[in-house]
TrEMBL record:
<feature type="domain" description="HTH lacI-type">
    <location>
        <begin position="3"/>
        <end position="57"/>
    </location>
</feature>
<dbReference type="GO" id="GO:0000976">
    <property type="term" value="F:transcription cis-regulatory region binding"/>
</dbReference>
<dbReference type="Pfam" id="PF00532">
    <property type="entry name" value="Peripla_BP_1"/>
</dbReference>
<dbReference type="Pfam" id="PF00356">
    <property type="entry name" value="LacI"/>
</dbReference>
<dbReference type="InterPro" id="IPR000843">
    <property type="entry name" value="HTH_LacI"/>
</dbReference>
<dbReference type="InterPro" id="IPR001761">
    <property type="entry name" value="Peripla_BP/Lac1_sug-bd_dom"/>
</dbReference>
<dbReference type="InterPro" id="IPR028082">
    <property type="entry name" value="Peripla_BP_I"/>
</dbReference>
<dbReference type="InterPro" id="IPR001387">
    <property type="entry name" value="Cro/C1-type_HTH"/>
</dbReference>
<feature type="domain" description="HTH cro/C1-type">
    <location>
        <begin position="4"/>
        <end position="51"/>
    </location>
</feature>
<keyword id="KW-0804">Transcription</keyword>
<keyword id="KW-0678">Repressor</keyword>
<keyword id="KW-0805">Transcription regulation</keyword>
<dbReference type="InterPro" id="IPR010982">
    <property type="entry name" value="Lambda_DNA-bd_dom_sf"/>
</dbReference>
<keyword id="KW-0238">DNA-binding</keyword>
<dbReference type="GO" id="GO:0003700">
    <property type="term" value="F:DNA-binding transcription factor activity"/>
</dbReference>
<protein>
    <submittedName>
        <fullName>Transcriptional regulator, LacI family</fullName>
    </submittedName>
</protein>
């Protein structure tokens, strides 16, 4: 059986990217770690994939963009940032809708080995996708927005935990004590951190964090799943007086569900979204939300990728861009 870079990483007790940097003499690696990796390489008889490296010398000037849901306006804004800057850098963009299916993601990334693209930007890396290291060892890859913290692959995102904490603190400051949350069944780190921030902010204020006030929408944040989650929360006899939604699309679903149930917003229920997509300010009430710098996230990911492609220079493992809360009409004092 052919020895892979992951086998070497396991033997040396380091990440696959660390093995790659040692073999390519890039980045800053301590001498003891370097020695450990070299011993593991010799012990296992590992031979780097020379074919893939040769492919990289032939440039296609094409960037792969992997998105889980092209219809979600959050992703489309990021894609715009990527495409605009890549065009300025004389690169073409190839957008692939993967629907978060592992086999589809792998099939798309295999285009790198087939010399159909030079690098890739992933918009929805879930936790536990360790197999991504094999691609990142051979080709430039950037994780944008969502990322696996256990992978030594550069990422661009926001501080989702503190954004959630700040949101819940804001609702508490309005007098709300029964605060519900519409989360998601996906395995994104942002989903995990927003839920943790929600619970921690409640505990900080001495408020109860109860599972019956948390409902889970679909993994792709689709509108209908947001409606169903909101209905589950708002039909309780002792219902929440405020909802924190981890996506604007889910928040729009919650707003419309509350209206159908005869509730006034924010007089009867306050609702907060996340992302600041254009639709949040197009209807009544305009939705209070956490604004992610979507276009800038896409541009920063592209900048980092192009630096790797053009100069093969070392880039930061983590880049965190600022978020901001935008207060609109969908939130108000506790009824």
């Amino acid at each position: 059986m052919m020895v892979t870079i992951n086998d070497v990483a396991k033997e040396a007790n380091v990440s696959a990217s660390t093995v790659s940097r040692v073999l390519n003499n890039t980045g800053t690696i301590s001498q003891p770690t370097t020695n450990t990796v070299i011993r593991a390489v010799k012990k296992l008889g590992y031979e780097p994939n020379v074919l893939a490296r040769n492919f990289r010398k032939k440039r296609t000037r094409t960037i792969l963009i992997l998105t889980p849901n092209m219809t979600n306006p959050f992703y489309s804004n990021i894609i715009s940032g990527i495409c605009d800057l890549s065009r300025d850098m004389n690169y073409s963009s190839f957008v692939c809708n993967t629907t978060d299916e592992t086999q589809q993601i792998k099939k798309t990334l295999d285009m790198l080995y087939k010399h159909k693209a030079d690098g890739a930007i992933l918009l929805a890396s879930e936790k536990g996708q360790h197999w991504l290291s094999e691609y990142a060892e051979e080709f430039p890859i950037i994780q944008c927005c969502e990322y696996d913290p256990d992978l030594d692959i550069s990422r661009v995102s926001i501080d989702n935990y503190h954004a959630a904490v700040e949101t819940v603190r804001y609702l508490i400051a309005l007098g709300h004590k029964k605060i519900g949350m519409i989360s998601s069944v996906n395995k994104y780190l942002s989903t995990e951190n927003r839920l943790k921030g929600y619970k921690d902010a409640l505990r900080e204020a001495g408020l109860e964090s109860t599972d019956r006030y948390v409902a889970f929408a679909g993994k792709d944040y689709n509108y209908q799943s947001g409606c169903r989650a909101a209905e589950k929360l708002l039909t309780q006899s002792d219902r929440p007086t405020a909802l924190f939604c981890i996506s604007d699309v889910l928040a729009i679903g919650a707003v419309n569900t509350a209206k159908i149930m005869g509730m006034c917003i924010p007089e009867d229920i306050s609702i907060v979204g996340f992302d600041d997509v254009e639709q949040t300010s197009m209807f009544t009430p305009k939705i209070t939300t956490v604004a992610q710098p979507c276009y800038s996230l896409g541009q920063k990911a592209t900048e980092l990728l192009c630096r790797k492609l053009e100069q093969n220079e070392s880039i930061p493992l983590e880049t965190i861009l600022p978020y901001r809360m935008i207060i609109r009409d969908s939130t108000g004092p506790r009824p």
